[in-house]
Amino acid sequence: MFIEDLYRAIQRGPKGSEVKEALITWEDPKGNFRTFEIKK
Q1: 9: three-class secondary structure by DSSP
Q2: Which residues does the UniProt record annotate as the domain Acylphosphatase-like (predicted)?
Q3: Which pTM was predicted?
Q4: Residue 7 three-state SS
Q5: Helix (H, G, I), strand (E, B), or coil: what is residue 11?
Q6: Of 4, 24, 33, 39, which residue has the fewest beta carbons closer than 10 angstroms?
Q7: What whole-number distance in Å separates Cα of residue 36 and Cα of residue 1?
Q8: Cα 26 from chain centre
Q9: 10 Rama sector, left if φ>0, alpha if ψ -120 to 50, beta otherwise
Q10: Burial level of 35, CB count in 10 A (0-12/13-18/19+)?
């Protein structure tokens, strides 16, 4: 799973829900974290 996939899922929301807005602010990495992962 990629960040973009997660963003699309957030925009859709769960079945029967209404998502009014979902925003992402992209920034250059600052090196604060050694690793990043999304687990299912």
Answers
A1: helix
A2: 1-40
A3: 0.50
A4: helix
A5: helix
A6: 39
A7: 12
A8: 11
A9: alpha
A10: exposed
